[in-house]
Amino acid sequence: MKTKMTWKKILLLVLVVVAILLTYFLYPPAYPEITFPEGKKFAFTIVDDTDNATLANIKGIYDFLYEQGFRTTKTVWVFPTNDTSEWANLGASLEDSAYQAFVLDLQNKGFEIALHGARGGSSKRSEIITALEKYKETFGDYPKIHINHALNTDNLYWGRDKFSFAPFKYLYGGIFSNKEYYGHVPGSEYFWGDLAQQYITYVVNLSFFDINLLKINPSLPYHDPDKPYVRYWFHTSDGGYVTSFNELIKKKNIDRLEKEGGVCLVYTHLARDFYLNNTLDTTFKRQMEYLATKDGWFVPASVILDFLRLQPGDGKELSFREKVRLEILWLYEKILHGSS
Ligand SMILES: [Zn+2]
Fold first, then answer.
1. What is the Å distance from ligand 1's center to 211 Cα?
2. pLDDT tens across 318-329, in order?
């Protein structure tokens, strides 16, 4: 009887300690009041991962976004894939002259062009240098934004290296993948962290299902001294595919984004089922048309991030507690819903 009581007490003590730790780490930060340029009520844009993109499957979408007044961010690959075994590596690159002309036209219309690595498939340092110079030659400057491409070995702080809190690295490795990435590892043939630090301003790390990223992290974008080769990190709202995108931007969520004066940078793959048989997905079209009627700031991601970085409390280094909070929230979504 005496022993049973002891175990109960220990269990109770453990639960109390866990509850205190979770309360400490998950306690939400203060929500910022932001006055957007031109008196706009909220900010919204799309960050389009270029996987599988061709002129045939995305031009119709960009024509529509342009007509509706959205100026978003589109990533590109400089070179064609060197690994066709991965379906996600397929899609046009700047070596396709018609596609390059289309992307340049987008840039001229006010869209932002960003980097999705040198190609779909891993690239060594010398190839990445060539890609960055080709990018600059094509678009007039280096990219402000880079997004890691799924399994590329040259990714920066990817896989379990996304985490700052060591136990989460092991948890992620145990549940998802222990694959190593080397873009940020000096001495590796895939290392290009010093070039990223020199040329690139923003890199995406974690995506969340919330439409309002300021609710997740009001200090967006931020610097992490544990990951020095990235100048600023930002998050995205996860709308990776047409179904999750449509769920994210349903009317109720758009109305909340407006009411909260929030910021939404949607991460997606516009080449995946948004435009089939020369027709836009009807739900996507209807919801984007509704969003376009709102008084939102519909500019490219780096314009929003440049603006946020100048707000009080933004562009700073996060505390350990803030980083662990984000990592708990992301792991929770990843395990339950498979976020990006
Ligand atoms: Zn990708």
1. 21
2. 888 899 999 999
